[in-house]
Amino acid sequence: MFLNRIVVVAAKRYMSEANATIFALSSAYGKCGVSVIRVSGPHTREALRAIVGNKNDFKARVAYLRALYRPETTEMIDKGLVLWFPGPSSYTGEDCCEFQVHGSTAVIAALLENLGKLPGLRPAVPGEFTRRAFINNKLDLTEVDGLADLIHAETEAQRKQALLQSSGSLSRLYGNWRKVLIRCAAHLEAYIDFAEDENIEDDVITNLTNDLKAVREQISDHVNDQRRGEILRDGVRTVIAGAPNVGKSSFLNLVCQREVSIVTEIAGTTRDIIELTHNFGGYPVRFTDTAGLRLTTQDQVELEGIKRAKKCIQQADLILFLLDAWELNKYQVHTKQILDDYLKKHYQNLDLHESMLLAPRRVQFIANKADLLNPEELQIMKKIPELICISCKGNGEVKEFLNAFENLLKELCGTPLAEAPRLSHVRYRQLLEQCVQHMTLFLTNYSPEIYKDMAISAQKLRQAIRCIEIIIGHVSTDNILDVVFKDFCIGK
């Protein structure tokens, strides 16, 4: 009895918190020209009138310049714009209003303080406005994730992808797949329950099987995108690797146009991992400068640096492997085959050849110090298509690499398109892979001989539907029955 009472009290408290009117500063905190304070919930109209005055009546989505007062003393706090958004036509789906005031810390503090004194109002917790928008079906989970990505976008390509997702590109795609799966599951259950009693078409199983195969192929193509959307969202993990004193730090400084790494004539200057994020042509690149790779060293710090460099190489999306152009010329490395032999000879004992050079990972080989070669030697070296010759001492010799690097980034990240939205979260990929597995189990094993109890096969489709519903946040059990009655008119 006591436990039940606690549960009831907790439930009432939760409902009270969920139904409260919330307020918060929606713009960045600090001194600025204009700050926006948002209010949402059932007591928004009362709060608006308490701050602005009871005599004011507001039209929806119209900006009014009004004085804002302390409700207790009628002392003016500030003068600013006031907007009224009645639900459900608002961001959260509830009654909302916004106060656009001067971006003074004192003004913001005073207005928030006085809103907090009003009955039924409380400060919002992080993400609560968007959470209410989701609960009120203004956004689904993919759009919520897209909105978060848009807020954190740092490059143009990230902005485009996040904007498309927050505008519903993934939501529409997944929603269409969900509708097809629900229809297929509904037709299967109708066939199981009513095939002997009602006029159900004989080819219903054939049709739904064909529909499932088509959706499975679409989802598989969507999943097998080489992680382009995830890489663009998180940034291209680009590792700069190579032997000591080959010019890795100089290369990083040159590409980023600032002094990031220490450069000296001493081999092995870089011992630890140096990371920074750079906006390269609208694509986010997470550069990692690593310790020089060599077989023998007595320096324990350098050994740890080499160990960390290997780990970074294994986790990289893109590897920029620097070689010494003068050394390559000395070994007469002039063809792809000789380049492979050279790499095996010098780096196989470092356990890198198999994990880096043979793995399905993008590796760009760069021959630095091309300024030490004469024109004839340089032209011979440039005949190796997998090799780009540069000189960190001359900007002109880097242009070829910069063009190739931009093409690599486009290939890795792709171009965000509304008609072909990309996966942007690992969670989506995992659930869609599970969805494909459930459909494959159904398509592979379904037959009256295997599933004499056909309800087992229907469960496979329900699990596939649930995977998509978890992604978009619409988990339901009644949708299948709705489609059954609509499509088959059972019981008429």
UniProtKB/TrEMBL annotation:
Domain annotation MnmE helical: ranges: 141-489
Single biological process term from Gene Ontology: tRNA wobble uridine modification
InterPro entries: G_TrmE, GTP-bd, GTP-bd_TrmE_N, GTPase_MnmE, MnmE_dom2, MnmE_helical, P-loop_NTPase, Small_GTP-bd
Presence of the UniProt keyword Metal-binding in the record: no
Source domain of life: Eukaryota
A GO-annotated cellular component: mitochondrion
Alphabetic keyword roster: GTP-binding, Nucleotide-binding, tRNA processing
Entry's family note: Belongs to the TRAFAC class TrmE-Era-EngA-EngB-Septin-like GTPase superfamily. TrmE GTPase family.
Protein name: tRNA modification GTPase GTPBP3, mitochondrial
One MF term in the entry's GO annotations: GTP binding
Domain (GTP-binding protein TrmE N-terminal): residue spans on this chain: 21-138
A family per Pfam: TrmE_N
PANTHER family: TRNA MODIFICATION GTPASE GTPBP3, TRNA MODIFICATION GTPASE GTPBP3, MITOCHONDRIAL
Domain G: 238-339
UniProt subcellular location: Mitochondrion
